[in-house]
Amino acid sequence: MLQVFNVGRRFRKEFRKQLRMLIVVTLGFTIAFSWRQTTFDLSQSFVEWVTKTQNSALSTVLTSTFITLLSLLLIMVTSNFFKDSGSNGYD
Hints:
With 91 residues, the protein is mainly alpha-helical. Helices cover 85% and strands 0% of the residues.
């Protein structure tokens, strides 16, 4: 009988952990979405300054490419930083 209560406690603890994670992810997505246009506009200004491009379509494509490459670089750096030593990542 005591085992049933132990399972219930573990379930409640895990449920609270998952609920906290859901709230953090939701708020993180909200923050990222609110900064999306600002990030794009700043990146577009930078790309136009570097390339001296006046063409709107080309500028948008170059800006999206720049943001993608920068994001991939940040993903690679953070993945490498947080990687477990001695693990191939599939264990």
